[in-house]
Every structure is written in C-alpha cells, then in structure tokens.
C-alpha cells in the first residue's frame, strides 16, 4: 500500500511542477458587456444551440459525459475530426456562455451547475488523451492536419474557465497548447493560390499560436509564437500583388512576410477546386483571435485585417435575404449554410458594416424561425443542414463573444436599403464567374471549367427562394451523364448601365461531336435571357436535357412552401410524377419565377428539376434554338401577360428578342 501512495504523490508533484513551468497567466475576465440588445439575442440563440448539441453528443448521468466511442477507444487508434472537434467546440462554447452574459437555464435546458461540471469533465478527458499528455497506447488525438485548431477551441474554453479547473487539468491543457503551437515554429507558413488554398489552414493554425502566447507570456517560446502567429495571420489571405508590397506590417515590409499567395488578385478564394464562398469567409478564423488578445490585455497584429474588407465585401454580395449563400459554382458542402451567413459577420464590431449587420440580421431571423417550433421546450438543432462537427455552435459563440467584448457594430440597414446597396454586377476574372444582383433577384454565369461547374442560374431573392444553382444548371447535359465539353470560344463582358453578357461556343456530347452556341444576358433590373443554338445535331440515341433548372424541395428551408410548376399546358405539383409537355410558351415556378419560352419542342419536369429543352433518346426531331426569358418574382398572371408581348425572331445565325422596352440580339 505504501508504494502506490508514493507513486500517486510523486505523480501529483510532477503535475504541479509541469504546470508551474508553463506559468499560465489567467485571462482578465473583468470585461464589460458592450453588445447591447443584439448580444442578448445572440446569447439566447447560442444557448439554444449549446443545449441541443450537448444533449445530442454527450452522455449525462455519469462522470465522463463522453459517449461510448471514446470510452471504448482501442489503444493506438486515433479518433478523428467527427469525434474530437465537436467536443472541443462544446468546451469552448459552454465555457464562454457560462462566463459571459446571463446563463439562461431555460434556454439551454441544462442547469448551470451541470454545464460547469460537463465543461470541466470534457476538458479533463480531451486534454489528458492528447498526444502531449499520454502514451501512444492511450492517446486519442493530436499532431495532425487540424488538431491545432481543435486544441485551440478546447484551450480557449479551458482558459476562460481556468479558475475552475483542477491543477492537473491546467497542466495538461498548457502542455497540449504548447505542443500544438510548437509544431509551426520550424518552417514558413504554407501557401497555394489554386485548387487548394492554404488560407483557412493558416488562419485556424494561428489560433493555437495566439492562445499559447496569450496564456503563457513568460514561456521561452513566447516570442517565437508571437512572430509565427503574425506570419500565419498575414499570410492567410495574401494576394499576388502583396508579394511586391513594401508597406510596413508588424515591423517589416509586407512582402517579406510572404512566400506566395492564397487568394486570387480579384479576392476570390479557390478551395476544393473552385471558387468557394464558404472558404471566402475563412477570415473569421483570424478574427477569432481578437477576444483572446483582449483577455490577455494585448494588441493584435496589424496583419489581422489584411484584405479582410475585400473578402467580406464579396461574401456580403453573395448573401441572400433568406440567409442562404448564393453559390454560383454550386458547392460540395450544403446550399443552406446558415452558419456561414453568421460567421461572415464576426468582424462587424471592429470593422463596422451596416450592410454586414443586415446580413447578420438575416441569419438570426432564420435561426429564430428554426427555433420557433420548440419555443418553451427543450431546444433542437438550429442548423439542420450542416452540423457534423459543431462548427455552427463554436462560430456563433465566437460571434457573440466578439460583440460582447467589442460592441454591437453599426446599426443594420433596412432590408430594402441592403438589397439596394448590394445591387451590382461583378465579373470575377480569376474566379471565372459573373454575377448580377438586383434588389429582388440574382443571376450568375460560371465558366470555371468545361465540366460540372460550367453552369448558370437565375433565382428570385425571397424567403421561399425556389431556385438554386447546381452542377450544369441551364447548360444541362447531352447523354445519360455529365457530358464532355470543351470551350472553344468565350466572351464575358459587362453591359453599359449594369448587367453582363456572356457567350460560349462549345463542342460537347459523346465524342464532343456536337457544336453548340450558348448565350446569357443578365439585366440590372433582374430580367435574364438564356439562349442556346445547336450547330450540329446531337445523336438521336441520347437524352438531351439543356436549359436545366433546379428548384428547392425542402419545405423547411422554404418556410412551408412546396414547389409547383404552372404552364400554358399543364400544372405540376411536388407530389406528382414526372411530366413531359409539348408546345410550352410559358412557365411559372411557385408564383416566384416567370419564364417565357420559345423554340423548345418539349419540357420535362421531375422532382427537383425543370428541363426547358428536352428530347428523349430515340426521338428523331431536330433541335434548333431555344430562348428562355426569366422574370424573377413574377406571378402566373403577370407571366401570361408578358408571354403575349415577347417576340423572338430567328435571323440566320442570330436571334433577336424584343422585350417590349428593349431589343437584344444574340449570337
């Protein structure tokens, strides 16, 4: 009995010694709440999501709170993002919401005492099983692609709760943070402008460096952490022009910090192989450092704000009033990333933006709608579309913490003012997309490649937005799968007074044997014209599905609305089977999008799509031209009237469209 007790005491002495060697300075929590009414609303919604995530992912009624996958982890087998990151996010969010603002037990559905116990227990478990604190046979995680970010999230929560943590948990937390920060001291911050930007990776890795420096100001590596944090931050969103810029940033010329660009010269950001608005928003990861500089009573690096205004401006431009992000090249995550709309406005308290404040308002209004069915009940997940890693919880809580510490930002523009402010035409040459936004509609044309992201879309901007961009929308397919296509000629240019005109000549279809001209004209008032003309006939043994429109079918996202398609021929409802119609002159989607159609022989409608120019395999009739004139936010009755006025004339190889108030000639 003597020997085990001796070993236990020795273990405690070692833990105390290890903690002392890191000399962690607790945060200055004596911070006034500067968030006002907006902060109260953010706080409540954060608590609702915290309660939902805790009940979904944790086990209550035991000391661990962790589900069986952790308890039954096999020796030497690492757990991954889907296991570790959600727990780290909960540690941060739970700790922050216990410390800042009023913790409303009715909002979260979990008592304050229980939440505090859970945060301490989770911190103990997660830090103890990091590779810095355990043998290979018992570790769960650490020293991998995103582990520094998971450690930063857990460490941020632990530092906020520092006075409540046992000494052994403090020591393991400090070792974990120091270990992950030290990983980045050996070489330069990475960069990559094309396909797989390192922007978000540099940004999230900066958080471990910043936290280590703020927590342990007397650590021997503190100065190296500081310099490396400044490097990772300023390189995150470096553009090509910055590589020659001699202006001083954090004590040296900007160009001397950099080895390459992570964003394009037009400020679009390419990740996962295309212009990706979700990652355009990744500046939120560098902004998340600001509260911890404030809690350490230190000033952040100047590079924190480098190129962020330009990125923020693009994200605002693509934010819709229903809280969605408009993805002109579609997305590989989800069309309904409400968390992106909210995280994009994390910097509003320090980079005031009235239009950004309205975008945040659009996001919060959706969350209130999502929470409404459970009002007065236990909360449910507010982010049904995307929540595998608890990213919505931690980013929303960071948004709240930013407003708590730095203020509410500017008063938001009204909905009408914001729509007017955001109305513009932008052609991103590097991102390879043109977007025209009016007060109540948005249209896009993408030539990113000749594969699935060769696409275009026209959508009304409404709470029940019925149309979404998807792969090959409008361009469509020839055959039973995404057909081979090659862009032979391309012209994309702005129109005088706003809008854009685009024209492509393609070889496409099986063996690229079909020549096709496609053209799109988007007008600043919201109207858009899509036209296509076949130079060579597609083979008769393949399906033709061009002029393809994809519509939303999720009734929850549409706030109860179900899709309908009206036409001069028949009416299709979401529950109906597929429908083929001939001699269609006009269509209307859910009294939201009017379409006047000319030249099409058949229209095909099925769940989730309308094909304006359809020919079934085996049919022999020739395909010539098709013109579709789009009228967003137009009713059936108005579409019928417009159909009577529109005149489309084929003149040799050109097509003339008389809209009544102007004429447009294509090809």
Task: Please tell me about this protein's structure.
The chain is an alpha+beta fold and 667 residues long. The strands form six sheets. The chain has a nine-stranded antiparallel β-sheet with strand order 10-11-12-13-22-19-18-15-16, with helices on one face. A hairpin with a 5-residue loop joins strand 11 (500-508) and strand 12. It is elongated, with a radius of gyration of 28 Å. The protein starts with a helix and ends with a strand.
Could you outline the blueprint of secondary structure elements for this entry?
Layout: H1 2-22, H2 36-57, H3 68-71, H4 81-99, H5 105-108, H6 112-128, H7 147-160, H8 167-182, H9 199-215, H10 222-236, E1 248-249, E2 252-253, H11 254-257, E3 270-271, E4 274-275, H12 277-280, H13 284-287, H14 290-295, H15 308-317, H16 338-343, H17 354-371, H18 391-406, H19 415-422, E5 424-428, E6 433-437, E7 441-447, E8 454-460, E9 477-478, E10 485-494, E11 500-508, E12 514-522, E13 528-534, E14 544-550, E15 564-567, E16 571-573, E17 579-582, E18 586-589, E19 593-598, E20 602-606, E21 609-615, E22 625-632, H20 636-645, E23 647-651, E24 654-658, E25 663-666
Antiparallel strand pairs: 1-2, 3-4, 5-6, 6-7, 7-8, 9-14, 10-11, 11-12, 12-13, 13-22, 14-21, 15-16, 15-18, 17-20, 18-19, 19-22, 20-21, 23-24, 24-25
Helix pairs in contact: 1-8, 2-4, 2-17, 2-18, 4-6, 4-7, 4-18, 6-7, 6-8, 7-8, 7-9, 8-9, 9-10, 17-19
């Amino acid at each position: 009995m003597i020997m085990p007790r001796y070993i236990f005491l020795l273990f405690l002495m070692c833990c105390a010694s290890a903690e002392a060697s890191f000399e962690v300075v607790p945060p200055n929590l004596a911070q006034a709440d500067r968030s006002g009414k907006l902060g109260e609303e953010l706080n409540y919604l954060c608590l609702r999501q915290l309660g939902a995530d805790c009940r979904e992912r944790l086990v209550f009624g035991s000391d661990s709170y962790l589900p069986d996958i952790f308890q039954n982890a096999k020796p030497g087998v690492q757990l991954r993002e889907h296991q570790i990151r959600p727990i780290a996010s909960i540690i941060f969010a739970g700790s922050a919401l216990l410390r800042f603002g009023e913790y409303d037990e009715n909002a979260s559905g979990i008592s304050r005492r229980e939440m505090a116990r859970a945060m301490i227990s989770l911190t103990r478990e997660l830090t103890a099983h990091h590779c810095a604190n355990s043998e290979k046979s018992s570790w769960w995680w650490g020293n991998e692609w995103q582990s520094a970010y998971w450690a930063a999230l857990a460490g941020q929560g632990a530092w906020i709760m520092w006075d409540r943590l046992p000494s052994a948990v403090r020591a393991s937390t400090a070792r974990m943070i120091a270990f992950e920060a030290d990983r980045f001291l050996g070489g330069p911050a990475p960069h990559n402008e094309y396909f797989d930007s390192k922007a978000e990776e540099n940004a999230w890795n900066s958080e471990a460096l910043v936290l280590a420096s703020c927590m342990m100001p007397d650590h021997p590596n503190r100065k190296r952490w500081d310099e490396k944090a400044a490097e990772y931050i300023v390189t995150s969103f470096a553009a090509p022009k910055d590589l020659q810029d001699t202006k001083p940033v954090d004590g040296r010329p900007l160009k001397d910090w950099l080895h390459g660009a992570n964003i394009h010269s037009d400020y679009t950001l390419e990740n996962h192989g295309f212009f990706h608005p979700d990652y355009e928003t990744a500046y939120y990861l560098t902004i998340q450092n600001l509260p911890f500089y404030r809690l350490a009573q230190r000033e952040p690096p100047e590079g924190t704000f480098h190129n962020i205004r330009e990125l923020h401006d693009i994200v605002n431009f693509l934010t819709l009033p229903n809280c969605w992000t408009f993805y002109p090249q579609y997305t590989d995550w989800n069309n309904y990333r409400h968390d992106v709309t909210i995280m994009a406005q994390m910097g509003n308290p320090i980079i005031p933006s009235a239009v950004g404040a309205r975008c945040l308002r659009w996001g919060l209004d959706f969350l209130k709608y999502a929470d409404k069915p459970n009002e007065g009940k236990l909360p449910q997940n507010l982010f049904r579309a995307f929540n595998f890693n608890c990213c919505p919880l931690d980013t929303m809580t960071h948004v709240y913490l930013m407003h708590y510490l730095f203020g509410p930002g500017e008063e938001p523009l009204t909905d009408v003012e914001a729509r007017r402010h955001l109305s513009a035409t932008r052609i991103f040459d590097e991102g390879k997309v043109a977007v025209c936004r009016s007060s109540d509609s948005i249209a896009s044309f993408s030539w990113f490649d000749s594969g699935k992201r060769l696409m275009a879309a026209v959508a009304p901007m409404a709470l029940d937005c019925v149309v979404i961009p998807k792969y090959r929308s409008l361009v469509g397919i020839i055959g039973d799968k995404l057909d081979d296509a090659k862009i032979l000629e391309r012209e994309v240019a702005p129109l005088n007074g706003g809008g854009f005109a685009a024209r492509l000549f393609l070889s496409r279809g099986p063996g690229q044997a079909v020549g096709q001209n496609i053209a799109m004209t988007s007008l600043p008032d919201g109207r858009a014209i899509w036209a296509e003309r076949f130079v060579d006939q597609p083979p008769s043994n393949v399906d033709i599905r061009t002029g393809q429109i994809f519509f939303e079918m999720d009734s929850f996202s549409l706030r109860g609305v179900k899709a309908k398609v009206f036409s001069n021929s028949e009416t299709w409802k979401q529950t109906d089977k597929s429908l083929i119609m001939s001699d269609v002159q006009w269509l209307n989607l859910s009294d939201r999008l009017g379409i006047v159609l000319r030249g099409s022989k058949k229209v095909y409608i099925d769940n989730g799509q309308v094909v304006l120019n359809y020919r079934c395999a085996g049919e022999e009739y020739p395909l010539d031209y098709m013109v579709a004139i789009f009228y967003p936010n137009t009713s059936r009755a108005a579409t019928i009237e417009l159909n009577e006025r529109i005149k489309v004339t084929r003149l040799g190889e050109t097509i003339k469209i008389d809209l009544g108030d102007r004429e447009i000639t294509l090809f």
